[in-house]
Amino acid sequence: PGLHIFSIALALEVSVGKTNTVTALNGSNVLLPCVFTTCIGFQDLVFTWYFNSTEMIYHGKIKSKASEPFLVGRNPRVEFVGSTTGKDNNISIVLNEVDFSDAGKYTCHVKNPKEKNAQHSASIFLTVVHKMVETDNTVTLIIVGVVGGLIGLLILFMLVKRVVLFIIKKTQDRK
């Protein structure tokens, strides 16, 4: 017998989704997404949202997987919209009536005492615009149409060639 040492991989992860940028129209409400995962569960987990790394805009605590988060402190324009009793540990917030001064970096920070106070965070960048710009895809559609048409013509040409060669071969076989 020897001494066996087992280590537990602690894996607290925080994510703001596939893209870390969000664009919002001045005066609108914007969702700032954030979810976390943990391998061994959580207890007394603390999460905090920061604006530009220093200004705390939402602070919450979650007792356990069976309980929803409760508010510790928040900016009056911030609303919690997540849920942690379902499949996803969603700690997303909505920032109401955004204006140009709200543009910047928003960081979702999570601390899990059950994982030896493991901490992790993820950031999302908010851009506030005066008017949403519609993307014009006309050039892309024209290019796709032309390329598709050329491919179609090439296939048609190859088919006609095959048929002509087949007919020539058949007429030569008869002679």
Automatic annotation (TrEMBL):
InterPro entries: Ig-like_dom (IPR007110), Ig-like_dom_sf (IPR036179), Ig-like_fold (IPR013783), Ig_sub (IPR003599), Ig_V-set (IPR013106), Myelin_P0-rel (IPR000920)
Residue ranges crossing the lipid bilayer per the database entry: 139-160
GO cellular component: voltage-gated sodium channel complex
Localization per record: Membrane
Pfam families, per the entry: V-set (PF07686)
Location, primary (coarse class): membrane
Span of domain Ig-like: 1-125
Gene Ontology biological-process entries: cardiac muscle cell action potential involved in contraction; regulation of ventricular cardiac muscle cell membrane repolarization
Stated name of the protein: SCN4B protein
Signal peptide (from-to): none
Gene designation per UniProt: Scn4b
GO molecular function annotation: sodium channel regulator activity; transmembrane transporter binding
Membrane topology: Single-pass type I membrane protein
Keyword Transmembrane helix: yes
